[in-house]
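Q: I'm writing up a methods section and want to include an example of the input and output format. Could you take the sequence below and give the corresponding predicted structure tokens, formatted cleanly so I can copy it straight into the document?
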Amino acid sequence: MKVDQSSALPGHLHAETVQMGELIARLRVARQVKQAEAAIRAGLSRNTAYRIERGDPGLAIGQVLRYLDAIAPGMTLAELLTERDPALLQQQREEQRQRVRGLTQAELDELNF
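A: Here is the clean output for your methods example:
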């Protein structure tokens, strides 16, 4: 089993903590809550909030749950993982609506092998 040396967790578990942190960060942005504000509400330092959003596996689960509750009061971890929050769903719809611009002639020439 491959172990990530930076976290002392097996690679797949480290990946899960990172995924959870990214999801919490997306939820915070979708709900338009500043990181510093969420940290204050949760009684955490801004550095701890940053570490939560980066998926640091060395944090206590209670800190993660307090931070989640500060962003989305009453939301459970299970609800977060289903990604069914209306703010997250709206954010996903907006991301899908982004239009793709056409390539410039220089970009097309660069791609022409």
